[in-house]
Request: fold
Amino acid sequence: MKKTFALVRESYYFIVEIFSLIFSVATCMIPEQEADGNEKVDILIVPGFLSGPIYYKKLTRVLKDAGYNARILKIPPFFRDTNRAVNLLDSQLRSLPTKYLVIAHNTGGLLSLLSPDTSRRKIGTLITLGTPFQGTNLFHYFGPKDLRWKSRLLESHFNTFLFMDRFQPLAPWKEMFFRPKESSEFGQGRDLWFDVVGNFNLVRVEENLRTIRDYLLKNYPPAPDSAESPNPKGVPTSKPRKKAPGKKGKKNPTAKKKGRTSSKR
Reply:
């Protein structure tokens, strides 16, 4: 019975993933309204491949309700020239007055990785969502060749993530588009996994949004003046809290490590 339920649940979210992709592609070229330059921002979102600002509205609303103010950076939803996309991200990061918490969705994590050192220094904490660290077979058919599975560029920059002040990779336990699955495994005991399958589901499905919210509240709580002060900048200054590992096989309500309950940094 449990296996049947799990299979039905997985099949349901695979269907949701397909519709999420369709919605992402359909809205990716719709521009976002210009943000208020005086508005307080403490989280930056780097969009993923085939996704525009509209696709992350549910995520930003959940973050706002939790006390954070997030801003979506401008990245082309479709690109073949990796250097051009990296330069665009670099132009937005290097001018920041201080360090920020950055949430990067799939290829957004790779662009953050490939950014110049001057830009990476403005990332106080990097949280990746479904980033294919070693590239993906998807780009053998279209998209940037530099981000293909096992590309030389990504292999030469792989350990750059370790030079971030704080780095936490999160990924769905099963991929549908950004294959192979092992590409989303960074390793070194850092990975946390979402129960819901699918990369595009990461920032749309309510269960995943609650997971992201709870993870941030526990490890990077918003500043006390988040709701009142219009101009404070930077990221929450509290350090991640470690959670004692649970028993093997016990489900973690927030995220899980592959094959065992995860402990948070």
